[in-house]
Amino acid sequence: MPTQDEIYQKVQSTLVDALGVDEEDVTRDATLFGDLGAESIDLLDIVFRLERNFGIKIPRGELFPENISDPEFTENGKLTAKGLGEIKQRMPFADLSEFEADPQVDKLMNLYTVETLVQYVSGKLEGSK
Amino acid sequence: MRWIWIDKFLEFRSGEFAKAIKNLTLAEEHLHDHYPGYPVMPASLIIEGLAQTGGILVGEAKGFAEKVVLAKIPKAEFFGVACAGDQLVYEVTLTDLRSEGAVVDAKAFLDGQLLADVEIVFAHLDQSRSNQIFGPKNFVFTQQLLGVLDLAKAQERARQLSAPGRPDADHDAKVVDSSSSEPGKGLTISSE
């Protein structure tokens, strides 16, 4: 099992390759969509690279949840209590503490920082031991 | 003009690898503009040819059930130029395939030398959404484009019908077993 630092370095190089950004910009708290300029189409590329670089399997929708625009989960651009519960369940690797106070759907993607990916990969590697 | 940027498959191993050629001729209008007096194949059209080779490889792997679209080109490096009269050889390896899409490693060669090294990410369009927008027809794999693959199959059939042991038979592409019922595993063309 690699250390958190080793996982971070590999996630860093994965994002450098996938997004064409400079290594120094890929800090732990950098957001994928805001700071690193990722677009939705990059998510598939990131998933492919993480699988290859870490030798893990990432089932569809596990890292980047799908179908959260379901009317049951959102109301007036915000997640309902049910939606929030769903996200908590689907994204156990993300830190939702700040997001919960104002759960706007369009801010959901801001939850993805480099650290989120490190936590996700680390959880996967832990689970496969 | 027809939007077909490969001329022929030389090799096709279902779900693994495809090899196609593209002949460059002065009959192609764009070579006269790019550039006047110096007909160079635009790099973007080499990428398009690689993407068509790779797109058919990815589509065939799922029995052409998915609408395969070019999503992203994470890397494209060019090491030279190809001019009118040249023949480009495109070799594409399927490195990853999953329900959302695929990645291919694509290379173009000129006279055996690496001319372009490209990585291409394809996405499978969401079936329900794309049906709403484009209808059920698979607009990616038109008969025109798939005709290139059909041609390789037809040539192989013609080769089999002609006298076996024909001396030049070794130079043709080979299609093996196109009758399998398992989608995506029904086709092998090899140049051996």
TrEMBL record, chain A:
GO-annotated biological processes: lipid A biosynthetic process
Keyword terms: Fatty acid biosynthesis, Fatty acid metabolism, Lipid biosynthesis, Lipid metabolism, Phosphopantetheine, Phosphoprotein
CC annotations in GO: cytosol; membrane
Listed InterPro entries: ACP, ACP-like_sf, PP-bd_ACP, Ppantetheine_attach_site
Residue stretches making up the Carrier domain: 5-84
SUPFAM superfamilies, alphabetized: ACP-like
GO molecular function: acyl binding; acyl carrier activity
Full protein name: Acyl carrier protein
